[in-house]
Specification:
- The chain is α+β, with helices and mostly antiparallel strands.
- It has 3 domains: about 100 residues, RNA polymerase II/Efflux pump adaptor protein, barrel-sandwich hybrid domain (OB fold (Dihydrolipoamide Acetyltransferase, E2P), Beta Barrel), CATH 2.40.50.100; about 55 residues, Irregular (Dihydrolipoamide Transferase), CATH 4.10.320; about 220 residues, Chloramphenicol Acetyltransferase, CATH 3.30.559.
- The strands form 5 sheets. Strands 9, 12, 15, 16, 17, 18 and 19 form a 7-stranded mixed β-sheet that branches.
- Helix 3 runs parallel beside helix 4 and helix 9 crosses helix 10.
- The radius of gyration is 25 Å and the shape is globular.
C-alpha cells in the first residue's frame, strides 16, 4: 500500500484546498499520472501518483483544506495497474509515512534564521508558538510576518469584514435571485494581501504621461522582422521593463524593501508582470531582467501569460520579485492607482494609449499618449525620488535610443 500525501507547496505555503479528484476508488492508475488537483494561495497544482496500482481509498473530499504532508488517499497493487518496479514503489510509502510525525521533533534542531530572530525580538512574539513551514518545521520570515499580523489584528478586528458576515438577510424575492459562491483560496489571498499592503505601507501614487509615438514607430518598423527572427511578437511590455530597470538603477529605493528596522536594497532586478486570469491576478517574475535582451524579455512574458491562463505556473515563478509592472490598458483603463505588491516598495501602472491634443514646439498636435502611475511606499521612497523615477521612465520611452545607449 502506498500513501498519497500533500507535497511541499513552497515557502510560507502550509495548506491547500482539494480541487477535484481525477480518479475514483477502484480505478487503475499509472505512476506519475495526475490523481488530484490542489489549489494553494498562489497556484493550482496536480499531485501525481507516487506508484502504479489501484486507487483504493480517498481520504479527503473535494473542497477540504489539507496541510503539507496530510494523507490524501492510498494506492494498492491490483489488476489493471500500470507496471512499476517493486523497489522504487516502496520508497514513496516509506518516505511519506514518517514525514508528518518527524517534523515537530526535528524543528528545534534547525537554527533560527537571523531575520526571524530579529522579528521575534522586536515584536515580542514567542517563536515556539509559531507554526513553521520551512525545512523540518523551521519558522520562516513569512511565518513570523503572518503570525505578527494575526496577533496585531486580533485585539482590534478590522471593521470591514463585519458587514460581510453580519449582513441583513435579503427579502425573500431578492434572495431567490441571488447566488452565493465561496471565495477561492487564491481570491482570499489576493484580498488579504492587497488589504495588508494598504494597512502596512505608507502608499502614495504619482502620475505622469508619456508620448508613445517613438516606441510605436519603432515597433511598427521592426515588428515583422523581430517576430521572424525571434519567434515572438514585439509588444510594449519589453520597452517598459527596460525603461523601468534603467530608472531603478538611478533610484535604488524603488527596488528596495523594509525588513524590520533595515532597508534591503536589491542589486538585481526581478520584475513581476501582473497577469489577469479567470481565477484572479497572478504576478510571475522575470528574473535578472537586466541581463536579458528585449527578445528574451518578450519571450518570458509571453510564456508566463500562456501558462498563467492555463493555471500551469509554478510557485517559485511568482516569488522573489523586486518591482512590479501592471497593465490596466489592456482592459481599457485610462488611469488608476495600482496597489503595492508587498513587500516591494514600487509598482508601475501602464494604461490605455489614447490620442490627445498636446502642444509640440508651440503647435497643437494629436499624439498617442499614455498616463503612467507609480504607487510607492513613502516609508522608503521620498516624493522627489518617486517623481524622478517616473520622469526617467518617460524619458526612456519617448527616446528609446537612450535605453540602447544607456543614457
Amino acid at each position: 500500500m502506498t500513501d498519497i500525501r500533500v507535497p511541499a507547496l513552497g515557502e510560507s505555503v502550509t495548506e491547500a484546498t482539494v480541487g477535484k479528484w481525477f480518479k475514483q476508488p477502484g480505478e487503475a492508475v499509472a505512476v506519475d499520472e495526475p490523481l488530484v488537483e490542489l489549489e494553494t494561495d498562489k497556484v493550482t497544482l496536480e499531485v501525481p501518483a507516487p506508484a502504479a496500482g489501484v486507487l483504493s481509498d480517498v481520504a479527503v473530499k473535494e473542497g477540504a483544506t489539507v496541510a503539507v504532508g496530510a494523507l490524501l488517499g492510498q494506492i494498492k497493487d491490483g489488476a489493471g495497474a500500470a507496471p512499476k518496479p517493486a523497489a522504487p514503489a516502496a520508497k514513496p510509502a516509506e518516505a511519506a509515512k514518517p514525514a508528518p510525525p518527524a517534523a515537530p521533533a526535528a524543528r528545534t534542531e534547525m537554527p533560527m534564521p537571523p531575520a526571524v530572530r530579529k522579528m521575534a525580538a522586536e515584536s515580542g512574539m514567542d517563536v515556539s508558538q509559531v507554526q513553521g513551514s520551512g525545512v523540518r518545521g523551521q519558522v520562516t520570515k513569512g511565518d513570523m510576518m503572518a503570525a505578527i499580523e494575526r496577533a496585531a489584528a486580533a485585539p482590534t478586528p478590522m471593521p470591514s469584514p463585519a458587514p460581510l458576515q453580519m449582513r441583513a438577510p435579503s427579502p425573500p424575492d431578492d434572495a431567490a435571485r441571488e447566488e452565493r459562491v465561496h471565495m477561492t483560496r487564491l481570491r482570499q489571498t489576493i484580498a488579504r494581501r492587497l488589504k495588508d499592503a494598504q494597512n502596512t505601507a505608507a502608499m502614495l501614487t504619482t502620475f505622469n504621461e508619456v508620448d508613445m509615438s517613438a516606441v510605436m514607430a519603432l515597433r511598427n518598423q521592426y515588428k515583422e522582422l523581430f517576430e521572424k527572427k525571434h519567434g515572438v511578437k514585439l509588444g510594449f511590455m519589453g520597452f517598459f521593463v527596460r525603461a523601468a530597470i534603467q530608472a531603478l538603477k538611478e533610484i535604488p529605493a524603488v527596488n528596495a524593501e523594509i525588513d524590520g528596522t533595515d532597508i534591503v536594497y536589491k542589486n538585481y532586478y526581478h520584475i513581476g508582470i501582473a497577469v489577469g486570469t479567470e481565477k484572479g491576478l497572478v504576478v510571475p517574475v522575470v528574473r535578472d531582467a537586466q541581463t536579458m535582451s528585449l527578445a528574451e524579455i518578450e519571450k518570458a512574458i509571453a510564456d508566463f501569460g500562456r501558462r498563467a491562463r492555463d493555471g500551469a505556473l509554478k510557485i517559485e515563478e511568482m516569488q522573489g520579485g523586486t518591482f512590479t509592472i501592471t497593465n490596466g490598458g489592456v482592459y481599457g483603463s485610462l488611469m488608476s492607482t495600482p496597489i503595492l505588491n508587498a513587500p516591494q516598495s514600487g509598482i508601475l501602472g501602464m494604461h490605455k494609449i489614447q490620442e490627445r491634443p498636446v502642444v509640440v514646439a508651440g503647435k497643437i498636435e494629436a499624439r498617442p499618449m499614455m498616463y503612467l502611475a507609480l504607487s510607492y511606499d513613502h516609508r522608503i521612497v521620498d516624493g522627489r525620488e518617486a517623481v524622478t523615477f517616473l520622469v526617467r521612465v518617460k524619458e526612456g520611452l519617448e527616446d528609446p535610443a537612450r535605453m540602447v545607449l544607456d543614457l
